[in-house]
Fold each of these.
Amino acid sequence: GAVVSQHPSWVICKSGTSVKIECRSLDFQATTMFWYRQFPKQSLMLMATSNEGSKATYEQGVEKDKFLINHASLTLSTLTVTSAHPEDSSFYICSAREGGGMNEQFFGPGTRLTVL
Amino acid sequence: SQQGEEDPQALSIQEGENATMNCSYKTSINNLQWYRQNSGRGLVHLILIRSNEREKHSGRLRVTLDTSKKSSSLLITASRAADTASYFCASTGNQFYFGTGTSLTVIP
């Protein structure tokens, strides 16, 4: 299957700082990328959907000014957690899809964010 | 809530036994997918079943889909200790919405 990478795999930061997480599709063009967050022992919650070259669509309850998403190319999307606080500590996972809704999503390995 | 629900939430079985997990979803779907997640790791795609299919097999996995009941089941036959993980269903329309997950423990 297609490969999606995330960087970094884990990050620890101080409260109030901003953290950028990258999601790359390595061997296909990702027209759509998705960002999820997962709290311990819970399921994945979709945060936002981004299409290359367009503004991201955020799910209800997700602050777009806090979680900045940029999908500037067909192989790269970034999620920036601005002014991070301890409650933002979570496992962030991206996925990427080539083409339309019937196509399979491929998931990255996730990024563990810990905000002190 | 965007989530579907899975049951049981936790399942513990002996190696060699079969494990069955159920998933219910809320909206109309194009397809339904099952994923596995080892603790603290990313997701691994297991199997996809389309909305016009009722049953699908892949190795030791058997998935059923009942669109009238908005439910699906995943059966893992002849379980192994390495099958210990969390299993999620994901219903796909325009986006993915994951179920709450089943934590499976296979005891050697």
Amino acid sequence: NAGVTQTPKFQVLKTGQSMTLQCAQDMNHNSMYWYRQDPGMGLRLIYYSASEGTTDKGEVPNGYNVSRLNKREFSLRLESAAPSQTSVYFCASSIQVFSGNTIYFGEGSWLTVV
Amino acid sequence: TQLLEQSPQFLSIQEGENLTVYCNSSSVFSSLQWYRQEPGEGPVLLVTVVTGGEVKKLKRLTFQFGDARKDSSLHITAAQPGDTGLYLCAGINNDMRFGAGTRLTVKP
């Protein structure tokens, strides 16, 4: 039972470098999300995709871009990494967006920008 | 300022004790969820409450949604070391907002 799989698990970037976090779900869910988690801040939504072919900004979208490649995959791209983007990133999926359905999270990607 | 305020932020207790953690907001939610997160893992859903005043029980955990659907509480009876983790609440309307969490440590 893979659920939500995200890669890489750990990454160190230099300021200004770019990278893409990959996420895939095998539950045939329509909706996918990217969150970041910082100490004392809880989980904050970066972007979400309600269904294949759509993406929308969340609470903290600046400095990020996303691509819903197909129903299974939702990637997050940092074009020019900044130290403020040091965080733990979680990909998640659910049957329907913001509906009270169960949201399933990946195990997280630890990103450090130096 | 968090939309959802969770208290306490940290809680350390002995095995066998009871505890209650709180999730408060000035906003009304259509539903509210509680998650538990263990170190190095993503959050896992514990419960969804939908109706004002609703009480749900999950073994030793009791969840209550406030009558006005602005707040919620989680009560754990006879806490065990396996209950250790970060407890997050999330309010749902046209989006979903998480509180900062209560970090619970249960000592054997």
Amino acid sequence: GENVEQHPSTLSVQEGDSAVIKCTYSDSASNYFPWYKQELGKRPQLIIDIRSNVGEKKDQRIAVTLNKTAKHFSLHITETQPEDSAVYFCAASLGAGNMLTFGGGTRLMVKP
Amino acid sequence: GAVVSQHPSWVICKSGTSVKIECRSLDFQATTMFWYRQFPKQSLMLMATSNEGSKATYEQGVEKDKFLINHASLTLSTLTVTSAHPEDSSFYICSPGQANQPQHFGDGTRLSIL
């Protein structure tokens, strides 16, 4: 089955700096890669996703890149703000709507 | 995004009690329901996948006789934790699946077994 590795497990940045979280996956058949933000005690919320036919996708301060050959994808957050502090999870699946395999999560702390 | 309603949000009960968690997709018909479990400071782990009107498929290590899943309609699925014990204490989250659509999650149920 699919295995998703996520790094780093914790990340501390100064407000305004950029944050990068990286994930690798094992199953070359995976073709859908969402990212979720989870605040303490709350549900994971989808913040951005990318399909394998695209190499990069951007939404305001958030961007995701995908390298299918290397089987890794990354989340980039620019101009970080304190409200970006949360746990971020990457995931992989065989397509949107299919079961997700999650990475271990990254606890992002943005210091004001 | 999709509207998902999950109840209850928090349950505290004695060991040996059975607990039922409901998950409803309010604005679309979910042919598939995914149930995840999340222990403190850990990631989400898929427990089982259910399709409307058929038996659920359980992930390795998840006891199907302990975690009963019913998916009787396209908008409602239930997870029953039978004879719960302290090691079952966790955050249980449902996610209705819709083909080619991103997954969204219910608010989760925090289960604490004393």
